[in-house]
Amino acid sequence: MSYIMVDIESAGPIPRDYSMICFGAVLVDEKLDKTFYGKLKPISKKFDSKALSVSGFSRDETEQFDDPKQVMLDFRDWIQTHSKGRPIFISDNNGFDWMFVCWYFHHFIKENPFGYSSRRLSDLYCGIEKDTFAKWKHLRKTTHTHHPVDDALGNAEVLILMKKEMGLKISLK
């Protein structure tokens, strides 16, 4: 199994009504050198200016982004190339990130290489600490910039630290 840390930015709170603007992924291994970045053309006319501003892109800029189907096909191929065994989706906020990625996979290419489940980094950390309110974001090495590759890298660094220094039993291939 391979863990793939994912982070997305969107133009609103839910897929279909709003668009996923961009996303980043990193294969969680010792090197953290296998990354994916996709920028997707909007699928809806609706957007929340505040949500869109987090991505750092204007609506006009997003109109020039890539075809969502092609981006999802490219991401699927990247996952298949870099994953050993079943890929496992993990993110900081998988309720949000998973919702968009899963919907886009099924809508555009009729399959999700991650299957039907995901993991949440925060819950793993809270379990180690035995505290549902434990804070972990200070453990990131890569600055959280809202560029999804940076954010996925920072979160992957925390997962590796949890394995090496906190005793999390996890196989990172």
From TrEMBL:
<dbReference type="InterPro" id="IPR036397">
    <property type="entry name" value="RNaseH_sf"/>
</dbReference>
<keyword id="KW-0269">Exonuclease</keyword>
<dbReference type="Pfam" id="PF16473">
    <property type="entry name" value="Rv2179c-like"/>
</dbReference>
<dbReference type="GO" id="GO:0003676">
    <property type="term" value="F:nucleic acid binding"/>
</dbReference>
<dbReference type="GO" id="GO:0004527">
    <property type="term" value="F:exonuclease activity"/>
</dbReference>
<dbReference type="InterPro" id="IPR012337">
    <property type="entry name" value="RNaseH-like_sf"/>
</dbReference>
<keyword id="KW-0378">Hydrolase</keyword>
<dbReference type="InterPro" id="IPR033390">
    <property type="entry name" value="Rv2179c-like"/>
</dbReference>
<protein>
    <submittedName>
        <fullName>Exonuclease, RNase T and DNA polymerase III</fullName>
    </submittedName>
</protein>
<feature type="domain" description="3'-5' exoribonuclease Rv2179c-like">
    <location>
        <begin position="3"/>
        <end position="158"/>
    </location>
</feature>
<keyword id="KW-0540">Nuclease</keyword>
